[in-house]
Amino acid sequence: MSRTLRLAVIPGDGIGQEVVAEGLKVLTAVLPADTKVETTEYDLGARRYHATGETLPDSVLEELKGADAILLGAVGDPSVPSGVLERGLLLKLRFAFDHHVNLRPGKLFPGVASPLAGSPDIDFVVVREGTEGPYVGNGGTLRTGTPQEVATEVSLNTAFGIERVVRDAFARAQARPRKKLTLVHKNNVLVHAGRLWTRIFEQVAAEYPEVSTDYLHVDAATIFFVTQPERFDVIVTDNLFGDILTDLAAAVTGGIGLAASGNINPSGEFPSMFEPVHGSAPDIAGQGKADPTATVLSVALMLQHLGLTAEAAKIESAVAADLAERVGNPARSTSEIGDALAARVAG
Amino acid sequence: MSRTLRLAVIPGDGIGQEVVAEGLKVLTAVLPADTKVETTEYDLGARRYHATGETLPDSVLEELKGADAILLGAVGDPSVPSGVLERGLLLKLRFAFDHHVNLRPGKLFPGVASPLAGSPDIDFVVVREGTEGPYVGNGGTLRTGTPQEVATEVSLNTAFGIERVVRDAFARAQARPRKKLTLVHKNNVLVHAGRLWTRIFEQVAAEYPEVSTDYLHVDAATIFFVTQPERFDVIVTDNLFGDILTDLAAAVTGGIGLAASGNINPSGEFPSMFEPVHGSAPDIAGQGKADPTATVLSVALMLQHLGLTAEAAKIESAVAADLAERVGNPARSTSEIGDALAARVAG
Ligand SMILES: CC(C)[C@H](C(=O)O)[C@@H](O)C(=O)O
Ligand SMILES: CC(C)[C@H](C(=O)O)[C@@H](O)C(=O)O
């Protein structure tokens, strides 16, 4: 019996193309003989937008539904007005495919230099809500372009949407050795959304007596990210706070070149999407300078999600070994790093 | 001729009382002989709330209008539901007195240990908008307390409100040696508010050709706060992003015990308010363990605002000297630190 993984690939903009190529290289190398990968590449991003005005045509969205998973490189280019590709492509995918669990591990691998003194022991995971909050795109302007302009942004939060991501986070915390879950919000200022998050968090907590819980305001959480990151195990938070905290998490764990993410639809109704946390980095695009490690680790998250846990673990070990050997050695190109990782997982 | 500074003092909750006492000690010591300070203390915070149900009575608000400035310790106590004192007292003051410039320096003083490796050269100031954005309290709930609950939070942004704080930030940047101003927002997701901030920022920039400008998304800004904080000179940002970034700024510059802030009404129509960035820290309240330095530096910001720049500079030098001597010496109590600083500014 053989299996086929139908993978939709969206390289996107800037360094997206380069890092995705390495992600696929490692994926092919790690898969067992009985598992084939069938990739379909989608030309989406700045080029397509300039050529046709499209960000994500309905027909493509329809086709993507047939994929087992999506691998995305990066989205965004200075030639396109800010927000067009982010809202029209990346966020459209997250919302259309109901990616409510945005999973972002924060792990400092041995040997990796942290900007924090003393290289603390960092190993947590952020469960960021992915389909609500300030990201819903529910805003507008009045008297646009005049000195009397007013602009609004509405954060929408539902008990339904919060409960499902909070449940996911509790289940993840329960499955980890430390069994700790921290809710991050700003419930002393955003009292309506904050109370809803807090109420649901406490309700679900009652079903998980083994999981120890605490609460931090988002501002205080950033302090602990740099002064005491080892205190965190699992964090659950809203879409915007999760966006901010996971970039900070990337920074303290060796940089955005290593930070992986999964946009997960746990029900499987729609394909989940995996992407590095970093952006398209147009300044270094096409130069073979981008670190593909974040994409490779995102491939590991994808395999985990698809139930190929041994293969996911192989990739993580390969990355750990590779990172440990980087210290003191000359910098390698994007494809050299990809080759090295592919060789390790195949070996 | 003699001057009198009418100072309203709101010690508030937790360590507020202790740190404010030291702030006043240093203030009295630094003022020239011809300047008297006349303090009126207001009993506001958790105790008052439990006793009377009041957070900020109209009569007190009216009285406070007559002050030249307000010194606030800290607000918030676990015995009061989250948000009640924050919204009913602290934010009510900021909004009622139109404190649209929330000024928060981020400076790593020589000798102070930073959690960042290599102790980078950090000296920036965050100009946080203080009267708009997600802080307006414009939200609500539907089907409250049920599994169908929906909660909203509306971020309100006006051209008027943004322009005045952006102008303030440009003027500050222009007056500093590096003349650099960074706008921080999330204009690729919060496109309505983001475009308004960006448009006004660019308009005002045209009037300040000597100020070099750039833009960062808030998530990317947190990365630079830990990897390259020396890149920042002046930052202007919205209320919520400013809240988050200034706690992070405090963390990388030696901790929340040193972070000062001013809630400024530049027109002088209402009194400005000065407060440490830290909270009420109920866990260490009443033990003489709190560091009053943030409050003392907030007093310096107050003197600066009132035009007593020589005295403000004296306090900053005293703090710098005191901090440089802390390394390797035993920890001192709240009042010992206050005494030492008072002695330095008087000497
Ligand atoms: C590009 C942008 C829309 C996106 C986000 O804000 O979610 C990115 O910052 C991320 O974290 O994946
Ligand atoms: C206490 C809270 C309302 C306040 C804020 O969010 O502004 C605090 O965090 C601050 O930064 O001054």
From TrEMBL, chains A, B:
Indicate the segments forming the Isopropylmalate dehydrogenase-like domain, all copies: 6-341
User: Which superkingdom heads the taxonomic lineage of this protein's source?
Assistant: Bacteria
Annotated GO MF terms: 3-isopropylmalate dehydrogenase activity
CC cofactor: Mg(2+); Mn(2+)
Q: Where is this site: Important for catalysis?
A: Y135, K186
Per the entry, the cofactor note is: Binds 1 Mg(2+) or Mn(2+) ion per subunit.
Q: Which UniProt keywords apply?
A: Amino-acid biosynthesis, Branched-chain amino acid biosynthesis, Cytoplasm, Leucine biosynthesis, Magnesium, Manganese, Metal-binding, NAD, Oxidoreductase
Q: Where does NAD(+) bind?
A: G279, S280, A281, P282, D283, I284, A285, G286, Q287, G288, K289, A290, D291
User: At which positions is Mg(2+) bound?
Assistant: D219, D243, D247
Reactions listed under catalytic activity:
(2R,3S)-3-isopropylmalate + NAD(+) = 4-methyl-2-oxopentanoate + CO2 + NADH
Keyword Amino-acid biosynthesis listed: yes
The protein's annotated pathway: Amino-acid biosynthesis; L-leucine biosynthesis; L-leucine from 3-methyl-2-oxobutanoate: step 3/4
Q: Where, subcellularly, is it found? A: Cytoplasm
Which sequence ranges are marked TM in the entry? none
Name the EC number(s): 1.1.1.85
Task: Read off the PROSITE patterns from this record.
Answer: IDH_IMDH
PANTHER family the record matches = D-MALATE DEHYDROGENASE [DECARBOXYLATING]
Q: Which NCBIfam families match?
A: PRK03437.1
Similarity comment:
Belongs to the isocitrate and isopropylmalate dehydrogenases family. LeuB type 2 subfamily.
Under the subunit heading, UniProt states: Homodimer.
Q: What is the documented function of this protein? A: Catalyzes the oxidation of 3-carboxy-2-hydroxy-4-methylpentanoate (3-isopropylmalate) to 3-carboxy-4-methyl-2-oxopentanoate. The product decarboxylates to 4-methyl-2 oxopentanoate.
The protein depicted here goes by the name 3-isopropylmalate dehydrogenase
- Native organism is Streptacidiphilus monticola
Taxon lineage:
Bacteria, Bacillati, Actinomycetota, Actinomycetes, Kitasatosporales
Q: Which gene encodes it?
A: leuB
